[in-house]
Each structure stands twice: as structure tokens, then as C-alpha cells.
Design a protein that fits this description.
With 279 residues, the protein is mainly α. It has a single domain, classed as MetI-like (MetI-like fold, Orthogonal Bundle). Helix 7 packs across helix 8.
């Protein structure tokens, strides 16, 4: 097992991510105002003791919007990566384990999606399907699953040549048993690293689509939609874009920092195993 508590990089990122998740889950309790509450008399107010992050063009409290926005942004990140991981991991393991025509079909399908720039493909799919969170998530899933499929296939090709896999097949274990019992546990490390990095990328991509008006609509609290709503007032009321942009940056950096920490921890674990095997 990885000793996470000894890795400062993982510990710091977990503290930040834990705080963000706590804020998202308990936004209805922590938020000082109702995010649907409009106060046109106090619209575009600068940060003050009453409104720590100021108010937007409809008089809504920015801090409240940011808290509820964390709920939407994190949900999109975890949901998209979760579904993409399930699809990509399944197809990648099948392709790497069985090889042959199945590998050719899955990998050519993967290559066809990878031939397009990911953000361009997500934009095209979202524009075709229409605005809304569900369509945006579907577009991002179509883009993201290919990454996990490639990583899972490459790792499976390496693992299936190991002695314990050949021995398990030699004694009559079924292919499904070998894949679940031996292949999946031994390829999970790189997949988890890609998943942690992928959540940050999805949150950033979702914010970009919402900023362009193709994702979550401005009435819904979401960081990208808040940026879109505040761009008209960027010179007169910069706090409308400052705070949601700041939280996007912190969240993406925390997930990337966590992924890098996991990679370093897994690499160190493998080095220790190799050293122990020499003595």
C-alpha cells in the first residue's frame, strides 16, 4: 500500500480537494444567501462585509454562487471521468487481452476519435446536441474515454505476459477470471493517475464550454457560466470573473497536483519492489 500520509504533495492536494468537496456538498448550509435570491438595488456591489465576493448583475451574492457552482463543476468532473473510465477501461482491457481483430476494431475506433483535437470535438458535439449540462457531459465522455482505453490497453499488454497470468491460464482459469483477478488490479495504478488528472481537465473543459454558451446556462450556478455572465462587466466589476476563475484554477491545480503525487508515489513503490527483489 502507498503511504499517502508521508507524501506532502498528495496530503496538501487532498486537504484542498476535501475542502472544495465539503463546500459543494454543504453549500445549502454554508452559503450566506439563497443563490436564486435577486436584489437589483444592490447589483454589481464590490466585495464588502455583507457580500465578501460582491454581487453580480442581478444582485446575487457571488460567494453563494461560487459555493453552489462548486457542486455543479465537481459533479460534472467526477461523473464524466467515472463513465469515461468505465468505458475506456473495459474496452482497453478487452483489446489488450484478446488482441487480434477485436484489438484492431477498438483501437481504430479510438484513433478515429483521437484524430480530432479534443476541445474541437467536444465543441462540435455540444453544438450539434444543443445546450445543457447533460449534452455537455455526453460530449466530454465521448472525448475522454479514449485516453483511458489507450492506457488500459498498453498496461494490459504488459501484464498479460507476466508469469502469474500465464500460470493462471495454464491451470484452467477463465479469461474473465484472469482479467478481473490478475489484470485489473495490476493496471489500476496508471489508470488512477489518469483519472485524477482527467477530473481537472474535464472541469476546465466544462468551464470553457459553459463560457462559450454551449454548456451550463448562466442561470445555473457553475463556474464557467459565471465567467460567461461576468465578461460583460470585466472592466467595471472584475470580481464577477475573478472569484469563479480563481476557484477553477485552484481546483484544476489541486487535481493535477494530486495526480502528480500519485504518480511519484507509485513510481517510488515500484522502485522499492525492484530493490527488494535484488536482495
Amino acid at each position: 500500500m502507498i503511504e499517502i500520509h508521508k507524501n506532502r504533495q498528495i496530503t496538501l492536494s487532498l486537504i484542498i480537494l476535501g475542502g472544495l468537496i465539503f463546500m459543494a456538498v454543504f453549500a445549502s448550509i454554508l452559503a450566506p444567501y439563497d443563490y436564486t435570491e435577486k436584489d437589483l438595488q444592490n447589483r454589481l456591489q464590490a466585495p464588502s462585509s455583507d457580500h465578501l465576493f460582491g454581487t453580480d448583475h442581478l444582485g446575487r451574492d457571488i460567494l453563494t454562487m461560487v459555493m453552489y457552482g462548486a457542486r455543479a463543476s465537481l459533479f460534472v468532473g467526477f461523473a464524466v471521468v467515472g463513465v469515461s473510465l468505465a468505458i475506456g477501461l473495459t474496452l482497453g482491457v478487452l483489446a489488450g487481452y484478446y488482441g487480434g481483430w477485436l484489438d484492431e476494431i477498438i483501437m481504430r475506433l479510438t484513433d478515429s476519435f483521437l484524430a480530432f483535437p479534443s476541445m474541437f470535438l467536444a465543441l462540435a458535439i455540444t453544438a450539434f446536441l444543443g445546450q445543457g449540462m447533460e449534452n455537455m457531459m455526453l460530449a466530454l465522455i465521448v472525448v475522454e474515454w479514449t485516453v483511458f482505453a489507450r492506457v488500459a490497453r498498453g498496461s494490459t499488454l504488459d501484464v498479460k505476459t507476466k508469469g502469474y497470468v500465464r500460470a493462471s491460464r495454464w491451470v484452467g482459469a477463465s479469461n474473465s477470471y484472469v482479467m478481473i483477478k490478475h489484470v485489473l488490479p495490476n493496471i489500476i495504478s496508471p489508470v488512477l493517475i489518469m483519472a485524477s488528472l482527467g477530473i481537472g481537465n474535464v472541469i476546465l473543459a466544462a468551464a470553457g464550454l459553459s463560457f462559450l454558451g454551449l454548456g451550463v446556462q448562466p442561470a445555473t450556478p457553475e463556474w464557467g457560466a459565471m465567467l460567461n455572465a461576468g465578461r460583460t462587466y470585466v472592466t467595471t466589476s472584475p470580481w464577477l470573473m475573478l472569484f469563479p476563475g480563481l476557484f477553477i484554477m485552484i481546483t484544476v491545480l489541486a487535481f493535477n497536483y494530486f495526480g502528480d503525487g500519485l504518480r511519484d508515489a507509485f513510481d517510488q513503490k515500484m522502485k522499492n519492489i525492484e530493490l527488494e527483489g535484488r536482495f
